[in-house]
Amino acid sequence: MNIRLNRFLPVVLFTLLSVTELFAQTASKKIILKDASGLTLPGGFAATIVADSLGKARHIAVTAKGDMYVKLASPKNGKAIIYLHDSNGDGVFDQKTGFGNYGGTGMYLKGGYLYASSNDDVFRYKLDASEKVINQDQPEKLVTGLINRRQHETKSLVLDNNGNIYVNIGAFSNSCQVEDRKPGSPGKPNCPVLDSAAGIWQFKADKTGQHYSDGVRYATGLRNVVGLDWNQQDNALFVMQHGRDQLTMFPELYDTKKSAELPAECMYMIKKGDNAGWPYIYYDPFLKKKIEAPEYGGDGKKEGDSKFINPVAAYPAHMAPNGLLFYTGNMFPAKYKNGAFIAFHGSWNRAPEPQAGYFVVFQPFKDGKPYGDWEVFADNFSGSKENTAKGRADHRPCGLAQGPDGSLFVSDDNRGTIYKISYAK
Amino acid sequence: MKYCLLFLILGMNVEVNAQSARKPAVKKTAPTKNSALTSSMARGSIVYTSYCLACHQADAGGVPNMNPPLTKTEYVLGDKKRLINIILNGLNEEVKINDETYSNPMPPHNFLTDEQIADVLTYVRNNFGNKASLVNKPEVAKLRK
Q: Which chain A residues are within 8 Å of B89, Cβ to Cβ?
């Protein structure tokens, strides 16, 4: 503790001058700073607000020069991709332009292209040498006609290093019941949702006009994935699943407390052909087992089929992991290198129990696998503990991106704030 | 225990004393002009907690982009027939309220009795800052196929 304090003393003193609050979190023996951005962060880190009131800012992508593209869930003033530029080098984005009239979530930069998704289609825009979009009005439509039934409809995306694009197609259902979200309704046999959704589809990143038939169902049994990233150490896809809701629909097996705490939100490492088991199983983080879903004959204890893959890490229920980023920068201390940041959008399905989430978590990794316990990294997006408990958050973390200097950007899709988190050595 | 606490809070909202609100069947307040409303509201709050709260939340504020709020909206305060039909048949379309869209489908709640539906709608229409007329059993019965 003392050693830590001494090491961070200059940072702490500086921060005291420029920020509003400082307090020690004794439980984790860490100094937590609540700075001018309103966030609480581990000692040595500071956050600034670099853009605000953008709209429903979903996923974000940062260029090599530090400019940012932001995908909005719905257009604001007719524009749903926002380009941000800092013209005077003061660290705040002061220039804002927009293009693209379709709302959506996916936003990714790779190999001279900006990739974006609506809730039905996937597009890409060619970039010039400074990574500016050349023709804002005429993107190439790579994939079209993906299923969108207004439930888990966002199409998050990421690319590998071999010219493939991975697109989430979420289940248009909670648990594949005969009557969706109806108490006691059984699961449909051979859940038909899995044919066209509840999985990750792989398409070619450079081919226009692709349909389902041109793609590969790369992984199935994933209810809905919003946060996903390509792990360069493993050369593999990692996804965060939004676990099922409303186990209380089977009140004889699950009371409201159990339903608030089950199932885990899971991180999966995905290999081609994997099946994560939705809707037949869910992951119980207390039993550390895959449990058969009540819609398919489960009793809350019976283990599910072992053919379904296990998660590589599990997190508390219903917190809605919307962003995943493997940190490859050099700004943060060594323990963060190659670990995962996860933006938890915050729960709603824990009511009447207090809601949870609305923070960014760090998951340590070693040799390309989760290693050790996750910890809350950036908190207080909601504004207060009361806001969190009520599910009435001021800000809701959603997208993550790494800046060229190794800083971490976080988007908020409630008030359209972009945070930049830096570490002062 | 948590349930009791919730009922306490809900009980206060509906101006039923906590003792009576804690019990499932509430009918002990002295008969007054408003006793029909009061007892319907108390029963309605129990239905709300069991079947509505998970999605529409304890404050009826809903969930952004997903589950619509039940506060100060035409859907709740306006045409009773439309409202009753939403409970009976569910709603599987995009709902727009104050420029916000809500997309989660609501399942039919036709497994509730006519009285439960009347009570919960009366409760929602006269709680959470709402003020609108009662919904009664025959109005529900008429629309149930």
A: none
Residue A144, token pair as written in the block: 């079209």
Is any Cβ of chain A less than 8 angstroms from the Cβ of B8? no
Element (H, E) at B143: helix B137-143
Segment-wise mean pLDDT, segments of 10 residues, chain A, 425 residues: 39 37 37 73 95 97 98 97 96 96 98 98 98 97 96 97 98 96 95 98 98 97 98 98 96 95 98 98 98 97 97 98 98 98 97 96 97 97 96 97 98 97 89
Residue B46 has φ and ψ, to the nearest 5°, of -70, -40
Amino acid at A115: Y
Position B28 pLDDT exceeds 60: no
CA torsion, ordered B83, B84, B88, B89, to nearest 10 deg = -40
What are the helix and strand counts (H, E) for chain A?
3, 32
Q: Which of residues 94-133 of B touch A (CB under 8 A)?
A: 94, 101, 103-108, 111
- What are residue A245's phi and psi, to 5 degrees? -105, 170
**Partners of residue A392 in chain B, C-beta under 8 Å:** 59, 61
The tally of CA atoms less than 13 A away on the side-chain side of residue B116 is: 15
CA distance A246 to B55: 9
Q: What is the distance between the terminal CA atoms of chain A, rounded to a whole angstrom? A: 18
- Interface residue A252 vs chain B (CB under 8 A): no
Taking the C-alpha atoms of residue A313 and residue B54, their distance in angstroms, rounded to an integer, is 27
Which residues in chain B touch residue A256, judged by CB atoms under 8 angstroms apart?
Answer: 2-3
